[in-house]
Amino acid sequence: MIESNIAQIESFTLSNNIKVHLIKRDNIPVVTYTIGFPAGAKDDEQGKSGTAHLLEHLMFENGPVVNGDNYDDLLHYRGGNSNALTSQDYTIYIANIPSNGFEFLLWLEKERFSDFRITEESFYVQKSVVTEERSMYYDNAPYGTALERASAHLFEGTLYRTPVIGYREEIQAITLQDVKNFYEKNYDFGNSVITVIGDIELSKMQDLLEKYFGGFYSKNSKIKQNYLSEPIQKSVKDTFVDNVSLPGEFIYYRTPGFLTQEYFALQIISELIAGGESSELYKFLVRDKKHLQSIESYLIPFKYAGLFAIEFYYTVDGKKEIVDESLLNYIETIQKELIPARTIEKAKNKILTEYYQSLQLSSFLAERIAEFCLMGKSVDLVFNEYKGYEFLSAAEIAEVSRAFLKEDNKVELNYIPNVNTK
Amino acid sequence: MLIPNNEIIPKFEHLKDLKFPPYYERTLDNGIKLFVVEDSEFPLVTTRFVFKTGAFFDTMYKSGVAYLVSKLLNKGTKRFSATELSEQIDYYGAVVSTGCGYDATYIYSNCLKKYLNEIFELVNEIVWQPTFEQSEIDREKYRLLNVIISELDEADYLAERLFKKTVYKNTPYFLNVKGNQDSLNAITRNDIVDFYSRYYSPENLIFAIVGDITIKEVEELIESSFGKLSKGVAVGKQIVNLSKEEGININLVEKKGAVQSEIQIGHLGVTRDNTDYIKIYVMNMILGGYFTSRINRNLREIHGYTYGARSAFNYYKWAGDFCVDTNVKTKQTRAAVKEILKEITKMRVELVREEELETVKNYVTGNFPLQLETANAIATHIINLEFYELEKDYYNTFISKVNSVTREDVLEVANKYLDPDNISVCISGDVDKLIKDFESLGKVNIITNLKDLQ
After folding, report:
1. What are the structural domains, with CATH classification, of chain B?
2. How many Cβ contacts (< 8 angstroms) between chains A and B?
3. How far, in Å, CA of A76 to CA of A31, rounded?
4. pLDDT of A231 higher than 80
5. pTM of the predicted model as reported, rounded to 2 decimal places
6. Is there a contact between A277 and B82 if contact means CB atoms under 8 Å apart?
7. Which residues 369-388 of chain B have a CB within 8 Å of chain A?
8. CA distances to A86, A305, B250 from A50, in Å
9. How far is A85 from chain B (nearest CA, A)?
10. Which of A90, A382, B66, B159 counts the most CB atoms within 10 A of its CB?
């Protein structure tokens, strides 16, 4: 299906079972590298949410140290840069480096994952850094806590119930020993995935990677299966007075996970609800009746479940009754298969354009390949994902919306302005 | 631990200058600068119209005109209503967005190659034949009035507005691009039509097209669209009357329910055509330009005050500023400000370490190719070259220019362009708690009416 001229993925497994995926792309003399583990916030111990994410921060403090320079200093000296991300299901470390420094990067990686040598001092500094990260993105941001509040309801009794960043007081409760335990238990090289994209010699890669990563041993640990509780079977509705000037309404449904049959239908539904200024809800609620400033809709897919979100940002004159009624009516239209074929085709076109756009950056592509692997999907799907949308019919979309966009699978959170206090 | 010997790890080599990727350029008879970057990896085509105009040309009491004009372009043309336009654009799965900053206005489109003809025709209508109907103007004004109310809930927005108000005072760069409550109410359809006809001319336009397309195809598209439009008037050189800060001025604004402080510290800077540009760039990298810079290392890695801290020289077309920004715990705000001022001062009194300079050079030159990774990123660089009127060879010699900067150069530009004794400290946060800590540092000014920041 994909009409691109991008080179294909080459894959092999190292002697200790590390999975490797490569793409040669030599438009610039740079190599993008990632290493990922199927360990994330879902593996945080009860009462210690934020451990996986804090560990991600600390892996940049875990050596090597040469003449007082740490991992990032040494990498920057060689013209490279680094980043990392933690999700519910996995953790991925990323680096870009001029191709003549690639072997140096492999040495750095081997060193930093060889042992756990975090000091109390850097542990406390990073705990404080992470607390400020939480403040910035969640506690000090308008409507910033909606998602974690909803997840606590939707995923009650499952491993996805707590936020990746961690609750404020639970971050405080994490000890250095907790982080060390997490590392030893959950960072198993036998389950890890390496991707390399860029200016590389494919024929030399297996020997090179074996040389630096072959010494890590596989613990043969099992990736934690997420025990999913029964569907919530209740409608949760809550209102919070917050430091915002205008109301926000946040609606979430629990759904199936990454790349399931339902995933594709839900991506289309999010386009139907909020994809562009020609969507029915936008035309009525934002353009004509001016109840809303904007509408957002998106799917957050985890490995074993997902979360479908609809967000309404109100205007000063916005009427909640009308907004709620319009949404219900529109969902009913989807459920009764009354969406015109052209509108569904429109959503598919939009998804295809965005999909090509997203594969252009090597670092994004490398992350995507790692993500597919770590979520237990075949990497071939990275370039074939669009097939999942091609033959999706209005009837299938209706069926998914009937099964999941329903009242007893929904959490609605309203944030309203605090008018009196400062 | 030691770095293993050179037999194991290849020796470090300095990077050589990188040849800027090939592109096509031509000035049309009517003054439009045309750029084409071909790339067939994916079946996509992007078009970018950049007009050399923006909120800089708004007047004090009618701020928001330039932004309204840019947002109204796709809200109705000679042939199509706003809804008919969005219906078609969305159907083709395309993205068409419009907007402006102070100095530039853009109209961006991205679509699948197979729909390029349809989208290009629509975009051309949007750019050259907007109708600015009164009902659409009212609708857009109402939307903006709501947006500017919501923006005041954001800590970083408050600090940024406070900083701009303090540093740029009564110049156009202080005005809010989106306008304010009073100005939006005062703007008439005439203001909008006048602005459009005055500034949206071929003579003011840079046009770049990028992706799965050939030069021949581009020339055909242009021949059948804006190739024959008449010139119009170009925007000439502009003068801005700036006045420097005197002393250390503390400006505070309340962020409701703040759990941390958002800080912006700085003063006026330079324009992009400054001959010391590369030296300033390297100096700022060491100070606060990247993750292992002095400011981030101090505030984040040593003290744990913040998730991140950075400094930058920001460039507008006719002015510029120097700004350090970060967000920190309320009770550590004073300490963080003190550390920032200390780092700025240190840049002016001590030569940087050889190793520090070397790391920055390697980091900047090593990361430079990443800025040219996609055809669209290449186009951004070409547009900047044209927009800021830089020498044609600028990117081809970028790496060697960076590598030639010395420790003495860094000290010299730090002294010339950093001024920690005459500086604005702007903070949004819990004012009651902050005020006591800051009284000893300098004159404290508190903004109580948020409308003053709009």
Report:
1. 24-225 (3.30.830.10), 248-453 (3.30.830.10)
2. 217
3. 14
4. no
5. 0.95
6. yes
7. 369-370, 372-374, 376
8. 10, 20, 36
9. 15
10. B66
